[in-house]
Amino acid sequence: MKVKLQEDVLKDQNLSANFNREHFNTSKTLVVNMMSSPGAGKTTLLEETIKLLVDQYTVAVIEGDLATDRDAERLRALGVQTVQINTVGGCHLDARMIAKKIPEFDLEEIDILFIENIGNLVCPSGYDLGQHYKVAVLSVPEGNDKIPKYPVMFRRTDMTIINKIDLLPYVPFDLEEAESDLQFINPSAKFQALSAKTGEGLDRWITWLKEAYQQCTKQ
Amino acid sequence: MKVKLQEDVLKDQNLSANFNREHFNTSKTLVVNMMSSPGAGKTTLLEETIKLLVDQYTVAVIEGDLATDRDAERLRALGVQTVQINTVGGCHLDARMIAKKIPEFDLEEIDILFIENIGNLVCPSGYDLGQHYKVAVLSVPEGNDKIPKYPVMFRRTDMTIINKIDLLPYVPFDLEEAESDLQFINPSAKFQALSAKTGEGLDRWITWLKEAYQQCTKQ
Lengths: 219, 219
What we know:
The structure is a homodimer. By secondary structure, chain A is of the alpha/beta class. Chain A contains 9 helices and 7 strands; from the N terminus they run ααβαβαβαββααβαβα. The mean pLDDT of chain A is 95. Chain A binds chain B through residues 37-40, 65-68, 70-71, 89, 91, 118-123, 139-143, 145-146, 148-152, 164, 166-167, 170-171, and chain B through 37-39, 65-68, 70-71, 89, 91, 118-123, 139, 141-143, 145-146, 148-152, 164, 166-167, 170-171. Chains A, B: Keywords: GTP-binding, Hydrolase, Metal-binding, Nickel, Nucleotide-binding, Zinc. Chains A, B: GO terms for molecular function: GTP binding; GTPase activity; nickel cation binding; zinc ion binding.
């Protein structure tokens, strides 16, 4: 599938989001926008997720960073196409940046595209990238008070993943309170707790992704 | 000391920063701007720091948050004046917000004023608040790759504190690499590792604050 970019698309965030969405829907590529604070474990979660998907699905990644391509290198090591966006200090990805990268992918061949956003619990939440789902990752050491303290992020996401549950014995984090805070802020959001490091809880996340992919190909 | 705000000060970030700095210098109040990702432990570090300072110093806090005054309540419980700034979604404090809050303090009576910035490793770094020192807090669970990955923050700070060293046995974090990465990005920056939770290493941080206060009152 050839993708032609028009200049007016690149001028406007919302036009670009719709442009991206149209392409993702046409090619039946499930697109998941992953957001979190720095160090919540998005890249490690993606590594483990990709390992569990690559036998059945063609996966690709758009990797957002302020600087360096360290995370992209980690994902390329798994043999998946990974396209880097360096924002050079910018605190979020926007739909125009994604639109510019679409021609680098053969979307028809890609089943699931993950977008790893800039590590930031504030800025990325306001930007529609044309994705099917927005997923927020919050890690146990950050504390469960981050859901009410950063409501804009958690209000706008389809799922919140609590990562690093292997650290629950060492740091205070109330999983039940986190779930009920999320329920209050965003009643329709999914809530999953897991550890990308130990693999605990990953199966539920993989099941959710497979179902989301099926939904996406049915449209 | 009465502080009169002029409208042009509030219109301009840099004018406001200089306005703030002038007031802080006149009253000989040491001002430290604390920045980090969400959940790196700024508030806990401030709690433990304040407990170790209040016998000798009058301490106050400006507490930045997107929403809620949970952190301000934690600090008020220690008996220190804490003024809340809610940015309603804004990802950093700026000098104008600080300038507007200055009249709420009797600066002549305050020895050390901490500004707890919004939890964000990107946006706050670009804003001079008129402080004497900028301190970045990075926590062990975030991983030591965050220094090269978020260079803008670490390049612009006077000190980087590595917090939560009590978690070093449970998560991969290379303290030496962190120190040498910081050295490379910002050779003049101080580097301290501590655990606000266990108290390990806090003495060095308190010593640094006391010396910084002495410098500030000498000017």
